[in-house]
Amino acid sequence: MAIKTNKAIKISQKHLLGIQELSINDVNIILDEAKTFIKLNQSKTKRLNILSGKTQINLFFEPSTRTQSSFELAGKRLGADVMSMNMENSAVKKGETLIDTAMTLNAMHPDIIVIRHQDSGACNLLSQKVNCAVLNAGDGSREHPTQALLDALTIINRKEKIEGLRIAICGDITHSRVARSNIYLLNMLGAEVNIIAPSNLMPKEIEKFGVNTFTDMKKGLKDCDIVMMLRLQNERMTSSFLSSNREYYEYYGLTPDKLSHAKDDALIMHPGPMNRGIEIDTKLADDINRSVIKEQVELGVAVRMACLKIFCE
Amino acid sequence: MKKQYFINANIVDPHSSINENGGLIIGEDGLIEGIGKKVNTNNIPSREKIIDLKGKYIFPGLVDMRVFAGEPGYEYKENFRTLSNAALAGGVTSVVTMPNTDPIIDNVSIVDFLKRRGRDKSKINVFPSASLTKNIEGTSMTEFGLLQSRGIIGFTDGVKTIQNTRLMSRIMNSAKDLGTLIMQHAEDYDLSKNGMINTGIIATKLGLSGIPSVAERIIIERDLTLLENIKCRYHISQISAAKSVEIIKERKEKIKFTTGVSINNLSLNENDIGDFKTFLKLSPPLRTEEDRMALVQGLKDETIDVIVSDHKPEDEEQKRLTFAQAATGASGIETLLSLSLELYHNGSIKLETIIKALTSNPAKILKINKGNLSIGNEADFCIVDIDKPWVVKKENLVSKSKNTSIEDKKLQGKVINTFVKGKELFTL
Q1: Catalytic: which of B310, B380, B387, B408?
Q2: In 10 A of CB B117, how many CB atoms?
Q3: What is the pTM of this model?
Q4: Angle at A117 between CA A115 and CA A120, to 5 degrees
Q5: Distance from CA of B277 to the nearest CA of A (A)
């Protein structure tokens, strides 16, 4: 298929650190590019050579299944040489700092580094120290821009546009980088965003981002077009953010009853991995009429291909 | 040393309520012999060499109540020699050093060592503090009486807070018996756990855990409640929030205690953290502009007694990390006075009030005869061009560590000379 390469407009950023740094024009460039890869990924021959000769390093300091494999596959489908480093067994364990790791890798002349790190701002720090482009695959509780972009693409694919939609994001907002990136992006694209969480999982002054906040899920879901569920990070349970899983499910788990408050054709999204029976009813998660969870994964590869291509240039 | 005569200076000595144009005479023994408007060319023998300061300011040498020295254990960050040079460049002639060294200053033998090192290597007056609890673990008290008799001026766990209320009340009781000064860093650890910056929009945006201002308030209210029944010398090291100012103002009408504030919290707010500037990772954290304004107002109406530098040298390696991993604290002793003068230049606070909070107030709390220019005292003072513009550049800092919170900031007012015991030890 034809790949558009004659774009007059260029992305304004050298790195993809977060949605916050992007303009609406940047977002449209990425989404338009991603659309061109959707069909390619469904075809029999999935390989292009546009990144042939380019080196992509995946630097994952946190365990990840879907984001890491998605980035790896995206790079390979574009013909890049992809190296994924498992940082659990690296020199970091021997006390090497992020900056030193960055300098070492930089000396190998990569064209792009994809980084996931448990500390907010780690990608910003890395971007100051290397010559190549840095793509943020999730930093602490700050941002996960490619997830938000793939969510937006999924919504556009089903609902044609985002402007004017009412979108609920529900769950552990405090610790969620996915929530933050989505809030910035969906706001930018003209959606009305409802945030639903118990007060213990609602970050302070989040309403200043221009969202509506709800502690009552049914009220928050009223007339929503999209219901975006977040993973409940089970490790939080120990520090008594919540009383129990079953109480959480009772009040904040997505069930057919609660979903009935949203629009009849409302779509269910989840960035994964899911805790079935904790934040989402297992049947709803698999309901092919409502759930677009698998589609999110599929379009994730296209979005990451677009990002790699654009930021490699 | 020859006798020295300075004339035509603007002298500000809050201790003696002097704020006038005049002169200063330093005797051969380094003591002050004359001060004020009566010192002028008419009453100085004509054969003597007279230095005309042409309207420059003379302040008493600053007394900085909160300084991390690095010795022993962290000499690579700062030692007494480098600390002295940095202090002198900022007009500071007396410091209270924090006990957070390695080992912790918590017993008599380490104090003897510290006093010797301070005396041999330091050019300024070093007043060491010791920890309130052994190894700053917050469980058992140190020997206040014995440590005091060896020259410890006050007690604090420095960067740490006594969490246990029963222990705090016992510390206060002992302090009452022995006349001990307690300096508390106010932070409730349950509330501040994992926190890095002020709780609020910036923390939410950057994805960093917050330290709510209520964490400070709870400890202040707890301690002041205890203090109602146990009257001891109690000082809150630093406050950062508007609510704290309000409570302190209200309680000061009933009970006696004192409060400090870091120059960082007076001059900067959380927005300055920008894109993860680790040099602005501070404790207490920078808060909102409303909080900063309340602190300035608190200083103005003298609810807050003291300005400190909270000088905490950290080598670059400890700051070239992600925000979560980076060390807390900023180097600031050299810029303390110049940054404080910003509050005068922008019309927020009277010059005399600022100088009081940097000299006579801390000296009074510490019960030391410093921070004043009274006749017969050791001549510790600085000569300042309060209008001289300059730009903070880390490569120009004297301190061994360059972790300034105000890199590239344009300041107005610079120390030209600093004298200790009548000796000129710093010249710009």
Answers
A1: B310
A2: 18
A3: 0.93
A4: 115
A5: 10
